[in-house]
Design brief:
This protein is α+β, with helices and mostly antiparallel strands. It is about 30% helix and about 35% strand. It has a single domain (about 1-85), classed as Dimeric alpha+beta barrel (Alpha-Beta Plaits, 2-Layer Sandwich). The chain is globular, with a radius of gyration of 13 Å. A four-stranded antiparallel sheet has the order 2-3-1-4.
Length: about 90
């Protein structure tokens, strides 16, 4: 199954974002989760507003566990994190 994590950054914690950015990137690349796509989301001004991770998982719990150990989550960089099952209907997996 595909799972999607949508995480929105807390603008008041921008300094922490910079401190933990490299740790966050290393964690996403750690092969602890089968990530299909991942990257930042940006607003109209080009400023980072959060990030999206799409992963091939056995259960949503797998994504929840992975997310809970992300340095950005551990250190409160995000103001919100939501995890969903994604059932694509158009494109390569539909």
């Amino acid at each position: 199954m595909l799972a999607v994590r949508v995480a929105l950054s807390d603008p008041e914690r921008a300094a922490l974002r910079q401190i933990y950015l490299e740790d966050h990137k290393r964690y996403l690349r750690s092969d602890r989760l089968n990530i299909v796509q991942s990257g930042p989301i940006v607003d109209e001004a080009g400023k980072g507003g959060g990030g999206i991770v799409v992963a091939d998982v056995g259960s949503l719990e797998e994504m929840h566990r992975f997310s809970a150990e992300d340095p950005f989550v551990l250190h409160g960089v995000y103001s919100s994190v939501a995890i969903y099952e994604w059932r694509p209907t158009i494109g390569g997996r539909g």
